[in-house]
Write a structure and sequence with these properties.
This protein is 34% helix and 25% strand. By secondary structure, it is an alpha+beta fold. Helix 9 packs antiparallel against helix 10 and helix 10 runs antiparallel to helix 11.
Length: 289
């Protein structure tokens, strides 16, 4: 099937892109990698009246990955493959990058496009939830704001962007002390969406106990979901296999999977528990190393 007819604008600046989006309202979509949007358009699940291509915007740091002021900045045009190859990333971000779809998609698709798409089977929003990231957006007249990822993801394929706003990038806190992270993903074949995914992030205090923890899940709820009770169990305690198993059970209880062709809800909860324990053990090993 072919996409419905649409207008095409190749923006040369962020201001031009935002103006074109504001003019078209909610019937206009930004185009970066297009790896989520274009398949939906071909199936007529999405029928935007206009596409605003932002790939020709050379300024504004949209292509950059950098550390600055205690944060990792990833711009809106940074491809998944760029993240996988970058020495600037670590922890859960570095762990997740090679798991994103397949090499063809990783070379074209962008982290920010995936984040804005808000597919509950997408990997990046779980990583951002676990690491406490913010999404940086801009509207007309250089109006910028940072949105906590927990507030940015509103619902199934729904974000909190206004019709006249564009995602510029994401900011992920870089811990000053020992830290580590991991992303565990179960997929039926290379390039498939996650049947279950778990992102974990740990920070350690000077005495070796856990000072901060993040756990988030993919494909087991209507949106990517934080396991807040599991996080609370971890903070203040020393890393151990027993603690991580307990956190895994708490994460499984917070999951809300469905029975489908990929497996039963009961089995998926068991995978959540196991993957949470594995992800936390890998995160702790990084932090302690």
């Amino acid at each position: 099937m072919l996409p419905a007819q649409f207008d095409y604008v190749a923006a040369s600046s962020v201001d031009e892109a935002i103006a074109a989006k504001a003019e078209g309202g909610d019937e206009t979509r930004f185009l970066a990698g297009g790896q989520s949007l274009l398949p939906m358009m071909k199936l007529r699940f999405a029928t935007p009246s206009k596409l605003v291509d932002i790939n020709r915007i050379a300024s504004a740091g949209l292509n950059s990955i950098r550390r600055h002021n205690g944060q990792l900045h990833i711009g809106a045009l940074v491809r998944h493959a760029d993240i996988a190859a970058s020495d600037a990333v670590s922890g859960a971000v570095a762990s997740a990058a090679p798991w994103i779809s397949d090499p063809l998609v990783r070379n074209l698709g962008t982290l920010c496009g995936s984040v804005a798409h808000c597919d509950p089977e997408g990997d990046w929003n779980s990583v951002l939830l676990a690491t406490g990231a913010e999404v940086v957006v801009q509207g007309p007249s250089d109006r910028r704001r940072s949105i906590d990822i927990g507030d940015f993801v509103v619902d199934f394929f729904t974000n909190s962007l206004a019709d006249d706003e564009m995602v510029l990038g994401v900011h992920i806190p870089v811990p000053s002390g020992p830290s580590g992270g991991s992303y565990q993903k179960l997929e039926r074949k290379v390039g498939d969406y996650a049947t279950v995914g778990v992102a974990a992030h740990l920070e350690l205090a000077a005495d070796g106990t856990i000072s901060a923890a993040g756990v988030a899940m993919t494909s087991v709820a209507p949106i990517n979901r934080k396991a807040t009770e599991a996080e609370a169990l971890l903070v203040g305690n020393a890393p151990s296999a027993e603690l991580f198993a307990e956190a895994g059970e708490a994460a499984a209880a917070a999951a809300d999977p469905r029975d489908d062709v990929r497996g039963s809800a009961r089995w998926k909860r068991q995978v959540v528990a196991a993957f949470t324990g594995r992800a936390l053990a890998a995160a702790a090993e990084q932090a302690q190393g």
